[in-house]
Amino acid sequence: MIITMSPAKLQDFKSSVSVKKSTTPLYAKEAKELYESMERLSASEISSLMSINPQLAHDVYQYIHAYPLAKTPQRQAALAYNGISYQGLDAKTFSDKDWEFAQKHLIHVSGLYGVLRPLDLIKPYRLEMQIPWPNDKGKDLYAFWSDTISKYLAKQMSADDNVWINLASKEYAKAVNRKLLPKGYKVITPIFKQQTDNGGYKQIVVYAKKARGMMTRFIIQNQIKDVEHLKGFDTEGYVFAPQLSDDKEWVFIR
Fold it and tell me: How far is Cα of residue 80 from the mean position of the Cα atoms in its chain?
């Protein structure tokens, strides 16, 4: 199975890490082209384009102009991302065996890099997929990346078992053109819900984000190859709820 995760806005390039092995992003050239096309933007224009505050816009401005410099820090994607999902993934505690499996089965979908493997080195950036940035392929980043991401995912799925475990947000899953995926493919989107006071179940964003990372970790550490074994996910009290699930969305509750 091939797993997709969204990137995280929060990134960490300062804390110490013990992982030495790394790889080069597959589409580093395209990422460089994207950032070069944004070099003419002022901080205020970045603020407007990305709908972020002036301080964040200043940071992004610096990321863009520091990107080509050799001294710009780099870190493996799975260790650089530091959002809630990645706290659930907790890649810094992976064994060598975990990293080997993750590198083959986990894809991070990125607005700047398109496709990232866990050990691919990235630089500090902020570029969300929904940003309406015109380019030579279309009006936005979906147009820029969709074919590239979809064809890479299709290739990896074909080399595996044609199963896609979609643990990315809707924003990033939307970048995949399903018409380009292998014939007979299967996609499963896990949904995570919490029990409410009235006895029902509700999806709460912060918990769902962490659960996506925890499920990815569960797959990697158990080296799951049979999709049915995914139903055994029980981290932090989650259980599979067949009565709430269907063929495409598997619901886990607690």
Answer: 12
Distance CA 70, CA 97 (A): 31
Joined together, the tokens standing for residue 211 give: 């659960």
The b/e string for 107-143 (b: 16+ C-beta within 10 A; e otherwise) is bbbbbbbbbbbbbbbbbbbbbbbebebeeeeeebbbe
Helix (H) or strand (E) holding 77: helix 77-80
Q: Are strands 249-253 and 239-240 parallel, antiparallel or unpaired?
A: antiparallel
> Which residue in the block uniquely carries the two structure tokens 């979609």?
166
List residues bridging with 109 in a β-sheet: 115
Among residues 61, 44, 65, the alpha carbon closest in space to that of 53 is found at 44
User: Is the separation of the CB atoms in 98 and 220 below 8 Å?
Assistant: yes
4 - beta bridge partners? 107, 166
What is the full per-residue pLDDT of the chain (254 aa) written as tens digits?
999 999 999 999 999 999 999 999 999 999 999 999 999 999 999 999 999 999 999 999 999 999 999 999 999 999 999 999 999 999 999 999 999 999 999 999 999 999 999 999 999 999 999 999 999 999 999 999 999 999 999 999 999 999 999 999 999 999 999 999 999 999 999 999 999 989 899 999 999 999 999 999 999 999 999 999 999 999 999 999 999 999 999 999 99
Nearest alpha-carbon partner for 217 in 233, 206, 237, 238: 233
Q: What is the pTM of this model?
A: 0.95
